[in-house]
């Protein structure tokens, strides 16, 4: 296959064995190939397998060709500085001779300008500027007045400050760079083929060969995964999960009637839209999608949303009034190879498969990071270590250890990053079971969110700080009313996940939010309710018999009025009633009340990872050496896995970030049951007992019946948590949030819980616990 400007590609390899096979021949793959082949210390043969030699559908082709040093981690700053040095002396660094067809790759240094519309974000930019300056970057903080003086075309009424660097920051020809790297690599005997890897064949912990789409099996010494948005698919061929997915990114080129009198720096607006000069009289604007930033198929290049009129144009016209006449000349949609773990590149070997290397996960920075990272991978292959720039902070080992390296200055996420700067999430209960798991998910899904968390215990404060660098810990408790009021006034979204019956803190939050000036964006408030909400009628019935069943099943979509009525009929549900009154009397405060049932599963937060109902029942069963159920064991609550609950809460947070004022989501309709499945408490007790028996920790599988009074003595709130009915269906979240549960059933969780509780009690089981 021959494509203009691209070296010719054969479909078949020249050899049956190669020392190095690189999967992916765009920017990072070609950088690795060049640095290997041009190094006299490397003596092997290199094969590059590329499915799209024209690069028509690659991230490189859709790149906005940008270069910057304004990062928040030292390693990313140093990588960017090397990239600038590499392209400024491009021909020399590639060992070029006259008339060899390799172009110069200059940097068009019109600069990068981050704009902050609040003091907190301005403070973050200042912290980052100090680190960048310490690394030798030319970034400086600029006031709104200084920005206006340098760029008088900006409208800056809402801007507090900015960070600006005019040295080696701007645009360069990324496509020209990769084409040149390919050409020079081929001149150094690297074999490029137009093909796909469809199999990775292992012998133990070592890759022996790869299988190509055309059927050939090629023996390999080392495999490098440089497959961009397809990196996860390639890794799965070796049985490895990789947190890489394709994410949509839009770019539009536009012209205006009256061009600006000077270059427009690449400007990152607080809305997440970025803009810059493109060619002489044209400009470029880019951004993520309007809605949630979700994974898409790497082959999906469609875009139906009217992102130009709905998102880009309003921002352009507001920030640069001269752009009111903007007219689109052309546009494209490309993909970022998005690292969902921490938005940073993954460089170097896998921790278990000895000869598998990664050079993936650049999350929008691949063109500028490929030179340093390609050189680093080539060094690892040739010498077994980094010799120039130590990239070990980006190793796969951090994923295996669950130790993210968060880069908060990732433009790939600046849409939510900017919203989150204004958002200033405020969370209570952050070190608890629910709050901790949600923090983990927020940090993984949106590390750009700025979260402030109220935590009373000093040790838990430190644990949260250590685990989540973007979370600002506020030391205090729910009785610190003045503190809560101040935090609520400063926040745009409140997550109250702590004590579900603490009415005073709820009243304080409401009063604080009500006192805020009514601006364009309303405050959002997500409140957790107690799991026994649906059991209120039984709890009010003094003659009830613990453990009996009930046919009453609530649903939060068509049956929402019945839930409202239930709450109103029981004044003991003080917080729930108060939240309903807010929905009626303060509609500008957008509320959501979430009622979990039995929650199961291992939490992922830095504090409490243990749920209550199932572990406590397992613990007492092991201590008594006999199973127990309350009464006849026919009562039942719905249940949900903690990770599914966190996903539901995350969807609500994302809707708040997007400022979706949908009455189906918030207010009087914002009542969310979260039950997914059901088991009777008798069935749960039998499964716990059977699992303990399988471990040889019980003499038999007998289950005792105990009264409600006895249950209260044996278990915390035993007659309520194991002897009532709270049956509900989570229909609203599926209908209005697009949420769906995905985790395993409670039945699969029970054996793990029994094993864990036995270990906590110092009991050693003799056999694996089986499922009933």
Automatic annotation (TrEMBL):
Protein name stated in the entry: FAD dependent oxidoreductase-domain-containing protein
Organism field: Fusarium solani (Filamentous fungus)
Ranges of residues in domain NAD(P)-binding: 429-503
Record field: transmembrane: none
InterPro entries on file: FAD-dep_OxRdtase, FAD/NAD-bd_sf, NAD(P)-bd_dom, NAD(P)-bd_dom_sf, NAD(P)-dependent_oxidoreduct
GO CC annotation: cytoplasm
Gene Ontology terms for molecular function: aldehyde dehydrogenase (NAD+) activity
Residue ranges of domain FAD dependent oxidoreductase in the record: 19-380
Domain of life: Eukaryota
């Amino acid at each position: 296959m021959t494509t203009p400007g691209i070296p010719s590609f054969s479909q078949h390899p020249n050899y049956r064995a190669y020392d190095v096979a690189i999967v992916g021949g765009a920017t990072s793959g070609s950088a690795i190939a060049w640095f290997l082949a041009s190094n006299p210390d490397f003596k092997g043969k290199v094969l590059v397998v590329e499915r799209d030699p024209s690069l028509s559908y690659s991230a490189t082709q859709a790149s906005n060709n940008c270069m910057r040093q304004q990062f928040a981690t030292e390693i990313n700053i140093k990588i960017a500085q090397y990239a600038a040095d590499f392209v400024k002396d491009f021909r020399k660094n590639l060992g070029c001779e006259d008339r060899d067809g390799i172009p110069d790759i200059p940097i068009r240094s019109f600069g990068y300008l981050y704009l902050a519309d609040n003091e907190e974000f301005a403070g973050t930019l200042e912290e980052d500027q100090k680190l960048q300056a310490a690394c030798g970057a030319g970034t400086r903080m600029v006031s709104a007045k200084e920005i206006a003086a340098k760029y008088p075309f900006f409208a800056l009424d809402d801007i507090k400050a900015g960070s600006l660097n005019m040295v080696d920051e701007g645009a360069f020809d990324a496509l020209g760079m990769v084409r040149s790297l390919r050409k020079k690599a081929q001149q150094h005997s690297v074999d490029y083929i137009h093909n796909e890897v469809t199999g990775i064949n292992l012998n133990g912990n070592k890759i022996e060969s790869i299988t190509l789409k055309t059927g050939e099996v090629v023996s390999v010494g080392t495999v490098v995964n440089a497959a961009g948005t397809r990196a996860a698919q390639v890794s799965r061929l070796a049985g490895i999960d990789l947190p890489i997915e394709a994410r949509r990114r839009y770019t539009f080129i536009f012209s205006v009637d009256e061009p600006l009198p000077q270059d427009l720096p690449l400007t990152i607006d607080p809305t997440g839209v970025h803009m810059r000069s493109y060619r002489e009289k044209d400009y470029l604007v880019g951004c993520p999608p309007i809605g949630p930033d979700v994974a898409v198929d790497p082959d999906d290049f469609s875009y139906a949303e009217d992102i130009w009129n709905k998102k880009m144009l309003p921002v352009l016209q507001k920030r640069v009034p001269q752009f009111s006449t903007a007219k689109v000349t052309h546009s494209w949609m490309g993909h970022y190879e998005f690292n969902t773990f921490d938005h940073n590149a993954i460089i170097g070997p896998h921790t278990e498969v000895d000869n598998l290397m990664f050079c993936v996960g650049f999350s929008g920075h691949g063109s500028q990071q490929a030179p340093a990272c390609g050189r680093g991978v080539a060094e690892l292959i040739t010498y077994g270590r980094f010799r120039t720039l130590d990239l070990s902070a980006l190793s796969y080992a951090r994923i295996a250890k669950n130790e993210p390296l968060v880069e908060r200055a990732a433009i790939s996420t600046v849409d939510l990053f900017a919203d989150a700067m204004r958002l200033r999430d405020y969370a209570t209960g952050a070190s608890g079971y629910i709050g901790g798991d949600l923090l983990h998910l927020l940090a993984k899904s949106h590390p750009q969110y700025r979260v402030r968390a109220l935590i009373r215990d000093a040790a838990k404060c430190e644990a949260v700080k250590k685990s989540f660098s973007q979370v600002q810990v506020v030391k205090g408790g729910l009785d610190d009313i003045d503190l809560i009021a101040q935090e609520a006034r400063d926040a745009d979204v409140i997550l109250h996940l702590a004590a579900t019956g603490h009415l005073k803190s709820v009243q304080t939050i409401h009063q604080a939010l009500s006192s805020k000036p009514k601006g364009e964006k309303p405050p959002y408030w997500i409140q957790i309710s107690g799991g026994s909400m649906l059991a209120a009628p039984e709890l009010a019935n003094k003659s009830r018999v613990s453990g009996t069943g009930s046919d009453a099943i609530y649903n939060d979509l068509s049956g929402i009025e019945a839930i409202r009525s239930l709450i109103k009929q029981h004044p003991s549900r003080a917080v729930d009633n108060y939240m309903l009154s807010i929905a009626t009397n303060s509609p500008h405060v957008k509320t959501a009340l979430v009622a979990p049932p039995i929650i199961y599963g291992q939490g992922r937060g830095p504090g409490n990872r243990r749920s209550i109902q199932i572990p406590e029942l397992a613990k007492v069963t092991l201590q008594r050496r006999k199973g127990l159920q309350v009464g006849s064991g026919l009562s039942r609550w719905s249940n949900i896995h903690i990770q599914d609950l966190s996903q539901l809460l995350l969807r609500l947070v994302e809707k708040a970030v997007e400022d979706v004022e949908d009455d189906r989501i918030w207010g009087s309709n914002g009542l969310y049951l979260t039950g997914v499945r059901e088991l009777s408490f008798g069935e749960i007790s039998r499964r716990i007992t059977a699992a303990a028996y399988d471990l040889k920790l019980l003499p038999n599988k007998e289950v005792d019946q105990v009264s409600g009074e006895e249950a209260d003595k044996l278990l915390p709130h035993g007659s309520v948590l194991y002897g009532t009915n709270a049956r509900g269906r989570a229909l609203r979240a599926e209908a209005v949030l697009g949420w769906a549960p995905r985790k395993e059933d409670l039945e699969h969780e029970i054996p793990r819980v029994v094993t864990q509780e036995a270990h906590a009690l110092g009991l050693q089981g003799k056999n694996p616990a089986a499922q009933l």
